[in-house]
C-alpha cells in the first residue's frame, strides 16, 4: 500500500512538471506517429523495465553475497549453530552498505543520462514522449516489491531533469534530426 501511494505522488508531481516542461518549451502535443514522438515513446516504455531490471539484479547480487557470508560464518564460527556464539553482524552490514552504494551507480547513470542524451540528440518533442511513456508505464507485481521505491526516483527525475534543461534542448536539441 505504501509503495502505491509513493508512486502515485511521484506521478502527480511529474505530471505537473511535464505540464511546465511543455509550457516552457512551447511544443505542441499532437501526433504520436511522428518519428520524434515514436522514438521517445519507445525509449520511455523501455526505461522503467531497464531500470527495474538493473535494480533487481543489484538486489540479487547483494543477497547472494550476504548468503555466502552467512554460510561462511556458520561454517567457521564455532558454537554459532547452537546459539552459543555471536555472528559477525558488522561484516554483514558492510556487505549491504557496500552493495547499495556500488550497485546504485548504473541505474542512477541511466536515469541521469537518458534525458540529456535524448534531449540533445532528438530534441524537446522526443524528450516529451520519453517523459510521458516512462510515467505512464506500469510494472507487474514482481517489480513492485523490488523496484517500487527506486521507481519513485525514476519518475521524479524523468520529470525534473528535462524541465531544468528544457531551454537548452529547445535551442540546441535535435542534433540527430538536423543531419537526417
Automatic annotation (TrEMBL):
Its EC number is 7.1.3.1. Its main location: membrane. It is an enzyme of class 7 (translocase). Keywords: Ion transport, Magnesium, Membrane, Translocase, Transmembrane, Transmembrane helix, Transport. It is found in: Endomembrane system. The keyword Lipid biosynthesis does not apply. The chain crosses the membrane at residues 32-51, 110-133, 153-177. It is a multi-pass membrane protein. GO terms for molecular function: diphosphate hydrolysis-driven proton transmembrane transporter activity; inorganic diphosphate phosphatase activity. The keyword Transport applies. One of its GO terms (cellular component) is endomembrane system. This is H(+)-exporting diphosphatase.
Amino acid at each position: 500500500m505504501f509503495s502505491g501511494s509513493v508512486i502515485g505522488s511521484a506521478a502527480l508531481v511529474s505530471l505537473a512538471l511535464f505540464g511546465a516542461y511543455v509550457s516552457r518549451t512551447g511544443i505542441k502535443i499532437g501526433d504520436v506517429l511522428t518519428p520524434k514522438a515514436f522514438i521517445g515513446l519507445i525509449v520511455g516504455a523501455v526505461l522503467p523495465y531497464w531500470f527495474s531490471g538493473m535494480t533487481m539484479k543489484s538486489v540479487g547480487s547483494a543477497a547472494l553475497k550476504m548468503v555466502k557470508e552467512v554460510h561462511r560464518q556458520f561454517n567457521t564460527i564455532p558454537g554459532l549453530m547452537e546459539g552459543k556464539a555471536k555472528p559477525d553482524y558488522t561484516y554483514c552490514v558492510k556487505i549491504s552498505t557496500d552493495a547499495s552504494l556500488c550497485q546504485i551507480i548504473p541505474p542512477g547513470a541511466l536515469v541521469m543520462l537518458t534525458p540529456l542524451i535524448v534531449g540533445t540528440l532528438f530534441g524537446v518533442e522526443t524528450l516529451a514522449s520519453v517523459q510521458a511513456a516512462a510515467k505512464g508505464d506500469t510494472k507487474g507485481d514482481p517489480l513492485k516489491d523490488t523496484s517500487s521505491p527506486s521507481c519513485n526516483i525514476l519518475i521524479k527525475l524523468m520529470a525534473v531533469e528535462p524541465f531544468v534543461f528544457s531551454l537548452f534542448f529547445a535551442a540546441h536539441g535535435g542534433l540527430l534530426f538536423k543531419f537526417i
